């Protein structure tokens, strides 16, 4: 079993708790420990309780702390010395915690090499945002471009006259925020993505919005932004079968447009939709709020793909959308 402890000065751990539960739900065993506040538990006792809960034969524990030389890290290190099934990472950030949790969700075990790679990846998430074009140092700008460059499938794969039989998959998700933290840090891992296709007519006409979405793209995953029509052409290309792809659309209506013309979708997921829309809406799920016209579109979508589902994050229960359609 995997166990996690987040321990920090003040109430930092509780702030991280709120954010992690939004992204990951409560599928993993996380303990959050505050320190040196009026209502904080006794640190020594809390640590003793955590370490005593770890089975040396069957459990692995990963502990995150705020400051490498801080007293919280010192106390934890003293209790963890000599334990081969415990890892302590100081100087945590949110991407590091989420990447580490993703390994547990995929059933992987931890070792020193994996922890080192996680730390290296987390450091790459620390980036300066370029607010004025051309003002960042060249190496920073080049790294940013390399990680999120727009590519066409034709640039890496020759044309195919038939659709190949592969174990790759194509998932379409309705998410009004398109690329954001849940997609970058959670869904990209769960789906083992090679690429993301943002299918939206407005984004391709708005360079500022496109740049903002590229900032949110996960490292090492190619991002393509196209209009709905161009996305349909791209996805029907037989070369799309050679990659694990996530197609992101903003509305259920857009999902219908693509689903009606793309025959190779393996899954259609409705995740986050309706919170940014004004007017009368019906709440079908915690993160699915639909206007009357979007409800009609959802009915059409379930007729095209009866297995269309509601699921905000991979750890949530999957619900069939057709069960919510009148």
Automatic annotation (TrEMBL):
Stretches assigned to the PTS EIIB type-4 domain: 165-326
GO molecular function: kinase activity; protein-N(PI)-phosphohistidine-sugar phosphotransferase activity
InterPro entries per UniProt: Bacterial_PTS_sugar_comp, PTS_EIIA_man-typ, PTS_EIIA_man-typ_sf, PTS_IIB_sorbose-sp, PTS_IIB_sorbose-sp_sf
Record keywords, A-Z: Cytoplasm, Kinase, Phosphoprotein, Phosphotransferase system, Sugar transport, Transferase, Transport
Cross-referenced Pfam families: EIIA-man, PTSIIB_sorb
Location of this chain's protein in the cell: Cytoplasm
GO terms (BP aspect): phosphoenolpyruvate-dependent sugar phosphotransferase system
GO CC terms, sorted: cytoplasm; membrane
Gene3D superfamilies cross-referenced by the UniProt entry: Phosphotransferase system, mannose-type IIA component, Phosphotransferase system, sorbose subfamily IIB component
SUPFAM superfamilies linked to this entry: PTS IIb component, PTS system fructose IIA component-like
Annotated ranges, domain PTS EIIA type-4: 1-126
Name listed for the protein in its UniProt record: PTS transporter subunit IIB
